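User: Hi! I'm a student and our assignment asks us to look at how structure tokens line up with a sequence. Could you show me two examples?

Assistant: Happy to help. In each example below, the sequence comes first and the structure tokens follow. Example one:
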Amino acid sequence: MKDPILSVRNLRVTFPSLAGRIEAVRGVSFDIGKEKVGLIGESGSGKSLTGRSLMRLLPKAARPTADHMTFQGRELLKLPEREMREMRGGEIAMILQDPKFSLNPIMTVGDQIAETCRIHLKMGRREARMRTLQLLEQVHIRDPKRVYPLFPHEVSGGMGQRIMIAMMIVARPSLIIADEPTSALDVSVRGQILRILDELRAEQPTGLLFITHDLNLVRRFCDRVLIMYSGRIVEELPAAELDNARHPYTQGLLEAIPRLDRPKERLAVLKRDPRWLEEGFVR
């Protein structure tokens, strides 16, 4: 890929244990340009750890290493923490899974967005409030003035997720990492959230790393997909060609999805092969 926004080579994340250090992410490599890249796999495969590694938001016990992990030419693992703090929410934004646990419960949702405006855009209080109301309107929240003084527990899951998105786009980041942003939402609200993300990217093309379990969603929404198994990326292919996957793990995931056009009495159960842990990458 020519001039990617993000380039990762041989990312590894290890944790201490009684038996020595254990690798949770093992040799992950990928590039992201101004596109929507889906990262899929089972729970525990290392998807969220990979996303948090890019933000350097790992537990203290974790030890990330990489041949390189560069964002617009800057080596993320070598940046001082002060510069990383400025980059988080400014140039790289992360939308987390459940706004109930991601938003501050003792601050109004408006004040939380306004605080982000003041930190990253150096705005005064009045200007930050006006910008917050614009952002709430931009993510299709009706009557932003009514929503501004509400606390996180007073908004629905779909509205909370829109508020999270508004907070993350304050500084117009070049890369958005969305970690299961629609998993707690019903189907209709999920579609609205995806349309909002597409609208925002149409205004300013950005890279999007979309972490999810939902293969059908990735097929419809993303440009490219990375399949992760046991801490490794085992396959990469265009999202529209997901049904043509070659790796048996990806094929097993697809076979386990119920389909109206191919009804089955019993869905397939994924049978894992120990060789998948060491086999090469399929592209």
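Example two works the same way, sequence first and then tokens:
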Amino acid sequence: MQILSAEEQEQVAHAISVAENMTSGEIRIVIENTCPAQDPLDRAVSYFKKLEMHATAQRNGVLVYLAAHDHLFAIIGDAGINERVGPDFWESTKETMASYFRTGELAKGLIAGVHQAGNQLKHFYPNTSDDVNELPNEIHFGNSK
């Protein structure tokens, strides 16, 4: 079973593009059916390394991990972001997303999280004229599509 329709995938990728147009930060989304790790945060960290999210020039990458069937997700930011955002930032973003996830609106939850992260990132990492999109905007599908 497909987690997101092609249209929803395009909507999420577009939301990433819009958010990244406001900031030099990079946002990636990884979706799987199930989380092989016990903790979605551990799985997010694994993907963060695998997708080389730590390789951005300003260490300002954000990764959203979702295990749809298991109803688990995590959001992590690179060192450059974590030292600048407030301690409640990731939790408030997760709660915004969870409010959509609870009603089965996965795409809307992802889009809301991307917008919230983009709005925060633009304060610390505004977009510059020489900004380069360092990472793809498409959703990365792990163990299922």
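Here is something you could point out in your write-up. Strands lie at 26-32, 61-67, 72-77, 140-141.
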